[in-house]
Amino acid sequence: MSATRSALSADSRPRIGPGFRLQWEPAQDCHVLLYPEGMVRLNGSAGEIMKRCDGTSSLAAIVADLEQAFGTTGLEPEVRGFVELAAQQNWLRWEA
Q: Which residues contact 56 (CB under 8 A, 6 or more apart)?
């Protein structure tokens, strides 16, 4: 079942959707999502989340890694919100 049809849980393992490629773009000084029709320029937070969406890390692990990397807590609602938005755009997928 695709991400847009299944509930996101702490155990969900998001990954970059088919047809998209995440990369650092020095000319843009940011992470971008490349796809056949163009490019999506990601802000810093979005890039940090997306680069952790490798299909092996759970949402809970991604949140924990971000909180450790940035020395903060309470990021789960924002990360979950972004991941859900990214799934609506087909940038991310996960299996139920």
A: 13
